[in-house]
Amino acid sequence: MSNNTLVKRKKSLNLGQYSFVLIFVALFLIYFFVNFKEGHSQLKWTGVTNVLRHSAIVGLLSYGMAMIIITGDIDLSIGAILGCVSSFGCVIANIMLNAGVPTFVGVLVTVLFCLVAGTLLGFLNGLLIGKLKLPAFIVTLATQLIFRSVAQYSSRILDAALKGSTSNTYRVSNGPIRDAMYGFGQGQVLTLPVLGLVFLII
User: Fold this and answer.
1) φ, ψ (nearest 5 deg) of residue 167
2) Could you tell me where the beta strands, DSSP code E, fall in the chain?
3) How far is it, in rounded angstroms, from Cα 35 to Cα 13?
4) pTM for the whole structure
5) How confident is the model at residue 5 (pLDDT cuts 50, 70, 90)?
6) Which residues are CB-contacts of 101 (< 8 A; sequence separation ≥ 6)?
7) What is the dihedral of CA 39, 42, 43, 47, to 10 degrees?
8) Which of 5, 22, 144, 146 is the most buried (most CB within 10 A)?
9) Cα 122 off chain centre by
10) What are 145-181's pLDDT values in tens digits?
């Protein structure tokens, strides 16, 4: 390896490349000192794992958003896609529950539905932006409103058995499918939350 290559590599290693790590450390230190009382921090391991569990969903979404931002675009509809897909995911789970299918099949179908539905909604955005050359900001602003409206309107017209609620909200009805999903979301491996581990692995 030539000296010029080494010099270039040394120049390329700057703190800006690791700003996200520094920001994470800074936020963690703030969290640590905010919990500082009576001469020592009240921060416990359960507090750390709870942060990991609750930030997993946003963290997973941020991976996709980061790739979009790197390309110089933006996606305003990501939250609406999550809301719309999860809303109808509840409907699918309730259909599976009412049909009396085995718990594993019900969970699998619900998860596959959410993955496929989220992919298709994202593909629609990509099609409008990539093929029709429409501005990403305008497209995703419009689809954000569309996806949110579809979920909200459907909550008013769907049967309560499908929504799992008599109000204009969605939930998975009490049963083995809900218990399995809740168990996964609240599960732990060696005191680490399963959701946090999925986030870190991905």
Assistant:
1) -95, 180
2) 36-37, 40-41, 188-189, 192-193
3) 34
4) 0.77
5) low
6) 109
7) -170
8) 144
9) 14
10) 999 999 999 988 888 888 888 888 898 888 899 999 8
